[in-house]
Design a protein that fits this description.
homodimer; 184 residues; alpha+beta; Nucleoside Triphosphate Pyrophosphohydrolase; 2 domains; four-stranded mixed sheet; three-stranded antiparallel sheet; globular
Chain lengths: 184, 184
Amino acid sequence: MEEKIKTLSTLYANHFSASLDTVRLRTGRTTERIRVDHPEAAAVVAFPDAKHILMVRQWRYAIGRETLEIPAGKADPGEGLEDCARRELQEETGFNAAQIVSLFRYFPAIGYSNEVIEIFAASSLEKGSEELDEDEISRVEIIELDRVHDLISQGIIQDGKTVIGISLFQARKERGEIPTDFFR
Amino acid sequence: MEEKIKTLSTLYANHFSASLDTVRLRTGRTTERIRVDHPEAAAVVAFPDAKHILMVRQWRYAIGRETLEIPAGKADPGEGLEDCARRELQEETGFNAAQIVSLFRYFPAIGYSNEVIEIFAASSLEKGSEELDEDEISRVEIIELDRVHDLISQGIIQDGKTVIGISLFQARKERGEIPTDFFR
């Protein structure tokens, strides 16, 4: 294992922090590591029908460009991840989901962040509020699933959680692990 | 888009940094964002034969536990990502690869990091050096690919790049995009 000797400094943003720690490695050697302390997050592959999903266009400050991703966001304090997925879907697309199933829970950046993302699949969508989160989302798109696979294959979609969500939904469907009434 | 107003503070580790920036959102509102400035990285799904891959056990400080992952690491300054994948494979497992193909290039943590990971698939492996990177790697394992799919399905493997590497190798193989002599 590796153990913290001390935290040298910490940056605090609204909902998470980044620290620089001095760490003792398993060989006894010491080094410095940046560690992002991040709340859990949820993402959702939301199906208006069996052949399409909802995606959002948004500006990503960290990479300085607009991206096409599945809806996602950080959990509020005390909020469960299924509730978080439903809330983010509603805030980012205006849709509520009558059906939702968990697909996978993973660490996106295991080298320096404790962030966990749980990805859900949602169906039986109903249009709710028209008030979207305009601070973050510039456009909602309904995209054919075959086209999403093409956009991944072409390297146009480059967002990790979107690729994992689409790939694992497919794999779970092929294994018969998606409820038979998911697309009713 | 979102634009930086100023950087409030920065943490510097050995090979990357984390900054806290004040940012103007597309709606004109301002907020603070943590932004990790990370070198590009490479990961490799390495096949000793068509049915097995090499994986490494290592302690991950950010999540405080040991994980099972495909070999991976940050590029050295000026190093191309294919060279980085070959070097990390060699340092972490002792194997050299005669064949290597790019599978995918993606952003693992698009909300706060500019890290790019390019994932490769490697075959025709030959045992090279016995000197492994003992600071980071505790054990190298050869695991049946079917079992890797099970470990993902069971939530035992929870590392994003490993899931994307395995899923996209499978998808590309089914699309006929892996060279026919890849497993010779």
